[in-house]
Each structure stands twice: as structure tokens, then as C-alpha cells.
Structure prediction request, 471 residues.
Amino acid sequence: MFVLDAAGVVVHAGEGFAAHLGTDTEALRGRPFSDLLADGDWPEVREAADAVRAASGWESRRCRCRLSGVGGGATGAVGVEIEFAPYPGGEVGSGGAGDGSGDADSVATGAGRVVGAVCRELPEPAAARLHTERDRFDHLFDLVDDAVIEFEIVGVEPIIRAVNPGFEAVFGYDAAEVRGESLNDFIVPPNADDEAVDFDQRTADGKANHAIVTRQTAWGRREFLYRGIPYSRGDGRRYGFSIYSDITGQRRAREHLQVLQRVLRHNLRNEMNVVLGMAEEIREATADPRVDHAAARIAQHTETLLRVSEKARTAAAVLDDQRPDEVVDATATVRAVVESRRTRYPAATFDLDLPPSLPVSVGPKLAQALANVVENALEHTPEDVTVRIEAAACENDATLRISDDGDGIPEIEWAAVFGDEDITQLSHGSGLGLWVVKWVVESAGGRVDYDRSDGWSTVQLALPLADEARC
Prediction:
């Protein structure tokens, strides 16, 4: 047993406690308790002692730490569990903060004193594991870029106990300014009060939270991916962590892109239809071969732009489709894509080597991806092109290979889609279909590759097999 004053100094030590440290009681009296602990353990011990001092009635607190002897340091540290209780005869709830703010009067009267006792000695593996876990947590807490807040639910309020440097950088509030205050008072906008209360109640009930939220920072409102994680220390109180990842830039960029894309597509389609109609009128009204040729070129390029606009519309629909992946039969999908193009490309030859069934976890967007690969093989090759499609299951993946004996994909297109070429090098929209393929396949956890050899161009799709089809 030992007694600490309001400043965290040992004012009495029993022989049993002194024996834990390999010394005598006189050597302990008057020493700061932090000198007797391994590095980094004092804050948790001080918090437990302060909780006893601040309690309105008789209440004990337990904590784990490593006693290291009078010399301090981590060498020879022994893991123990300590229980703190109010000092008999002292004034419960009148103690200081345990941070060196005690004075002679408080020490003399016993105010702010607490009694501590070693409840049990932790086995060495448990003590070492506790030390390792604490170090890992401290490292993660301090270095993660996201804003992390540790809080306690007091009544109905999330009271901040600690924040990491990421919180200070993201929200713009100093740790000293917010510690001990209600988290909601600093970061929850007035119109989100009910939402925050619901999250707090879920934390108090031991439930996790996950949502996109708007929060107030020192510089204005921003949007965050929020994760709330409840946890318990075994002392009957309710704690939690809030993690905020700033996604304002991503969401604004997506919104800007959607608006620009839709306006551009709409205007492009409407204006190009007008140009195409005027070009046809010119061709019908002129007898001059040069004017007729020029009008025909205008019509040709207008139709090309309209096809690009249509591909952009298709790509946008694919990207906006947030439905979860589902199981589809890749074999049936390939056959449907090919059959719909046989009559449109009568001179083309389709050579299929497919299993009876090939269930994959991609969803209906697979049809759009395959259609883009097949269309690419048909539109940019001679009329009598041969398109070869092979499919097979291999461990946990399905492999689809779409090959053609045409001239191949222009390097500027495949290098940007399948290689390391900067996308700013793209000079036109002929590769847009390939981007759709890449986005569909990769969103399902697959991969797209391209190869050109022996006169054949091959686009290979690796797709995740459905669970029932895996080896």
C-alpha cells in the first residue's frame, strides 16, 4: 500500500509495496510516483488517481502500469495492476489535478490524497503485450493524418479526453482548447445536432457508426467520412473514438465533373445534331462537287463527335451505377454481346471457346464492358476481321481473352489505359470505351491487360469467380 498527495508525490509507502520495487519505505517517501514507473506509464496512472479525487462519493479506480524501481526507466520493469481509493479522512472530491499543483496545506490536511495498492502482478508476457499495444496505439494515434478524437460519454455529451495532431491540423483547434469540453460544441453545425445525438447514443450503447457528415472547422464547414468506435476500459464508463477523414475535395470534384459532363454532353449532342442537319441540307442543295465534299466531311466529323458523346453518356452511367456487384454468367454474357453484333458486322468472323457456364462476381455492367471491347475490335479493323473470345476458370479468377487480327489499338490509347502513359497525352475519344472496361473490371476487384503479338491484339479481363465456382 502507498499514499500519494495531490501532486502525485509518495507521502507514505508500506513495506509490501517497497518490496515490489526492491527498496525500503524511507527511500520512497517524498519521491514523485512517476519516478517509479516505466517511461510513458504515468499519464494513465495519474488519470486513475485524478478520477478518484474528482469522484463525488467513495469510488475506486484501477489501472495497469509497469513499476521500474527507484531509478526509473524500462529496465527490469514489472507489470502490475494498481487500485486507487480515496484517502481515509481526506476530503473526497477536493483534490488537485495530480500535475504538481498541490501545496503544503493540502498535503498537511490530507486533501487530494489517494491510497494505492498493487492488486496483482501481471505475468511477463501480458505486461510486455500491454506495453507493445500501448506503443502501437500511441504511434498510430499521433501519426495518422486523419483527425482522431478520444472521448467519454458523460450524461449525453461526448467529452473530449484526447485529440491527435491530425485533429488540430484538420479542424484548426488546439488540443488544450478542446480537452475536457463537449466535442459537439466545437464541430457539429446547428442543423446536425439531432444526427450527432443519435451517433452519441449509439456509442453509449456500444455500437459503431459510419456515415458521410458535414462538420464545422475553424475555417468553415467541410465534409467528412466519419467512423465512430466505442470501447470500454472496464471501469463502467463509456468511451469512444471518432475518426474523421476529410473528403470535401473529392466530393466537390465529383460534383463539378458531373455538372460539367452533363451540360457538355447535352449541349454537344444538341449542337452537333443541328450541324449534321445543316450539312445534309447543303449537300442536297449544292451542285458544286467541292461544296458537296466539304459538307460530307462536316457530316462525317459531326457523327464522330456524336458517337463520342454517346460513349461519354454510357461511361457516366457506368460510373454512377453504385449497385453492389452480383453474380452473372460470363459465358451467357459473351454470347449475348456477340449475337447482337453478328448482323451488324456480317463480314466479321467470331470464334468462341467458352465453358458451358462461368459465374463471376461483377454484375450487369460486365455486358457493357465486353461490348466495348468487342466494338473496339470491330470498328477499328477491316470488315473481315476475326474476333476470338476465350474464357476459362483459374483458381479464384475467371479469365476472358478477346483477340482480333486487325491493326491493334493505337499506342497512344493503350499506353494511357493499360500502361504508364500520362492521360493528358490522349488526343481523342476513341479510347473512352477501353476506360469503361478498365473501370468496370477494376471496380469488381479484377484486372485488365493488353498484348500485341503475332498479328493479334488481345485484351484480357481477369474477373473474380463467384464463390460457388471457386476451386
